[in-house]
Write a structure and sequence with these properties.
With 348 residues, chain A is an alpha+beta fold. Chain A contains 13 helices and 13 strands. In chain B, 0% of the residues lie in helices and 50% in strands. Chain B is globular. The chains are: A alpha+beta (348), B mainly beta (108).
Chain lengths: 348, 108
């Protein structure tokens, strides 16, 4: 497998951690940083559980060792490689490696952080009717964010570790942990380290996406639900299988209604609702669905140019701005062109 | 112009290509020696060009990608038929979809 394939797989890895490899990596990272090995290495089922363990440890864990075991070696190696390659060479290396994984892994880590904040705020049982609710909420969020700052992201550090692949012996302990486990919290006397997810489902664009269960789940039960990247409540997915056009029209939250529409299928919705074709030309068919209290949904229906393996041609729908007047104008818009400028000679 | 799935490849006249593009740092080829126009993040399926030439990231009306094929090339994808491209300069455009208040790239 090529380097980026390997790191893409690390970032998306699921299944039990290789605890022996990860713990050996942790001990070596501490020795390399000139620190005594941690007295205790504790395992957590998810980053959420890890935060709980870290809080419970209190002062026993000692100060954070993150800067010494992770940040300083990384900064030193970055400087060394940057000096060896020059600014242009470094940029080229980054564009070829880390940059390709950066957006999707950062988005995933941000979603996990947001999920943790949400759960811990809920768990604090703040009475929303009370006057000091905003203050209490802020206190929980501040403490949680501080604890999240102490984390090293393990497998989700794949983007920047990819840039150093084969170039840095010194980062080897961090590489070993990243390939064996999830997030970890290094403190002087204790390390809390997480299992990897049990399940991770994403769409082609790399967004969290699963229609019949959590898009991301950890062995302790911490889970996130999402449909094409859009966070949705867990119960919402159960309802999707029994949707009707009427229920979709009634949904007041525009984002959830969009999820419902996508899940239900624009084609079914078009067939069963009062949608009407507005225009047809060689590019496809333009449809308009009126929405109460919201802008119309306007879509072009187009037929894929390449047949499926069974010889049939797949029809698909692309949503376009409500001002679109013709099917061709709609397709041209999807490529940032105007109707006159869109003349494909060949399509597959 | 040529369309393969969610990627549109539009010929541009050589004289209208900004002069600095020829000297701009080129995108690296992938491990199979191909110029990757768009990569599916999860499947790894790619719209990629085989042949001599280079690919440059360019902001503005000629971007986001400018492709130069001095002797022509072929654009391939795991799920679409290949398309032969004559020699010349092209701009490469990814398909997008409308969302109220936002626009997103189409996941092919």
């Amino acid at each position: 497998m090529d380097t980026m394939g390997k790191w893409r797989a690390v970032a998306a890895a699921t299944g039990p951690a290789d605890r022996a490899v990860a713990e050996e990596g942790v001990r070596r990272a501490y020795r390399d940083a000139g620190l005594p090995e941690p007295e205790r290495i504790l395992w957590a089922g998810s980053p959420l559980e890890a935060i709980g363990i870290v809080r419970a440890l209190g002062d026993e864990k000692g100060p954070s060792a993150r800067d010494r075991v992770r940040t300083k070696p990384w900064a030193d190696e970055r400087r060394r490689v940057h000096d060896a390659l020059g600014p242009g060479g470094w940029t080229e290396l980054w564009n070829d490696t880390g940059a390709r994984l950066w957006d999707t892994t950062r988005a995933l880590a941000d979603r996990i952080r947001a999920g943790i904040l949400e759960r811990l705020t809920e768990a604090a049982g703040i009475d929303e009717a009370s006057d000091d609710a905003p203050e209490l909420r802020l206190a929980v969020e501040t403490e949680t964010r501080q604890l999240l700052l102490d984390a090293v992201l393990g497998q989700h550090d794949a983007a920047w570790l990819a840039a150093f692949d084969g170039r840095s012996e010194r980062l080897e302990p961090l590489v070993r942990i990243a390939t064996a486990a999830g997030w970890w919290w290094p403190y002087e006397k204790a390390v809390v380290i997480c299992e990897r997810p049990t399940e991770l489902h994403r769409d082609e664009a790399g967004r969290l996406d699963h229609g019949s269960g959590p898009a991301l789940s950890f062995p302790d039960g911490f889970a996130l639900h999402a449909w094409r990247g859009m966070p949705v409540p867990a119960g919402f997915l159960a309802e999707l299988s029994s949707l009707t056009p009427a229920r979709i029209r009634e949904e007041e939250n525009a984002e959830l209604r969009r999820v419902m529409l996508e899940f239900y299928g624009y084609d079914r919705y078009l067939a069963e609702s009062d949608a009407r074709p507005v225009h047809q030309d060689e590019s496809g068919i333009l449809w308009r669905i009126p929405m109460n209290g919201d802008e119309d949904v306007v879509m072009v229906e187009v037929v894929n140019s390449t047949p499926e393996p069974d010889g049939t041609y797949r029809t698909y729908w692309l949503r376009v701005p409500p001002s679109t007047g013709t099917a061709k104008e709609g397709v041209a818009w999807t490529f940032g062109l105007d109707e006159k400028g869109y003349e494909p000679l060949r399509q597959t | 112009m040529y369309r393969q799935g969610d990627v549109l490849i539009v010929p541009v006249a050589e004289e209208s290509v900004p002069a600095h593009v020829a000297d701009a740092p080129a995108e690296s080829r992938d491990t199979r020696g191909r110029l990757v126009l768009a990569l599916g993040e999860v499947t790894g399926h790619a719209h990629a060009v085989l042949g001599a030439g280079w690919l440059v990231r360019e902001p503005g009306p000629f971007g986001p990608l400018v492709l130069h094929l001095p002797t022509g090339g072929k654009v391939v994808h795991e799920e679409h038929a290949a398309i032969d491209l004559p020699r010349g300069w092209y701009r490469v455009i990814r398909q997008r979809e409308y969302l109220p208040g936002a626009v997103r790239i189409v996941a092919d």
